Amino acid sequence: MTRPIPLPFENLPARAFHASARIRFGDCDPAGIVFFASWFALANAAVEDFFRDALDVDFHALHAARRIGTGFAHAEADFFAPGLMGDQVLLTPLITRIGGASYAFTMHVHRGSAELLRLQLVTATTHLDERRAVPIPADLRAALTSYQERCADAR
Predict the structure, then answer these.
(1) Is the pTM here over 0.90, yes or no?
(2) CB burial class (10 A; 0-12, 13-18, 19+) of residue 97?
(3) CATH number of the domain residue 55 falls in
(4) Which of 12, 37, 62, 86 has its CA 20 to 30 Å from the CA of residue 110?
(5) pLDDT at 89 over 70
(6) Number of structural domains, the chain?
């Protein structure tokens, strides 16, 4: 396996969405370093902002009213440098694949220009009441496709 090389923030697509987060005491282990599981919680919060601000899809209505879940079906991480209590970071999702009932994206996490970690995430769309996979809703698919194209055009 080849280890990925950290990507400077400046190399991300110019039109990509960025969610800002502050690393808090509760995100860290006793050494003041972000606990690995906290990164996934921060990534999920960034996804909620991404839906609202970049996709114009109401994340909460999708889940609560429409009963469509968007949970992580696969997650992996490459850590390049520790995140520390008090850090201000930017989380940048880039869509890598849009399938029938799932989509994949890379979440780049930067402190300044330095990439701290990179998450590879696959999100499955499910019917929350029936507990089964369902096709990505048309409005979400269109928004994901548009965002993916915007980011590709900006490279």
Answers:
(1) yes
(2) exposed
(3) 3.10.129.10
(4) 62
(5) yes
(6) 1
